[in-house]
Amino acid sequence: MRDALAAAHTALTMLPRLGTVLAAKLLGHVGDVTLFPSEHHFASYTGTAPSDASSGKNTRHRLNTGGNRALNSVLHIIAICQIRDGGRGQEYYLRKIAEGKTPAEARRALKRRLSNVVYRTLKRDHHTALTAAA
After folding, report:
1. How many CB atoms lie within 10 A of CB 124?
2. pTM exceeds cut of 0.85
3. How many Å is the Cα radius of gyration of the chain?
4. Do 81 and 112 touch, CB atoms closer than 8 A?
5. 44 neighbors 83 (Cβ within 8 angstroms)
6. Which tens digit of pLDDT belongs to each residue from 84-131?
7. What is the chain written as a DSSP string?
């Protein structure tokens, strides 16, 4: 897996709590990142885009049960590790808790944020590869 990641020239392993196995799993399931025109499309594919569950004056979002469950699982593992081990992920999670979100809602928000970070990293890797090829 390390050789495959080295050949892919990806910066995914530079993200906190994203190791070799999870990065390889991400690359294998995503394939060509250019298939996703925006981070919203990518989040929908990974199952981290929120589903509206509002009722009356309560505005809520719930976990999306669609999308690629393997990618959602990878993002879940990264989120749990970041919450447990501290750093920016834990700070974001605690900030969401302080805003009145439940732990599940705060974890879902962190997973969506991680989805955006992974998407931007993959897009940057793709752009770097195109620039190096030219």
Report:
1. 13
2. yes
3. 16
4. no
5. no
6. 998 999 999 999 999 999 999 899 999 999 999 999 999 999 999 888
7. -HHHHHHHT--GGGSTT--HHHHHHHHHHH--GGG-SSHHHHHHHHT-SPEE--BTTB--EE----S-HHHHHHHHHHHHHHHHH-SHHHHHHHHHHHTT--HHHHHHHHHHHHHHHHHHHHHHHHHHHHHHH-
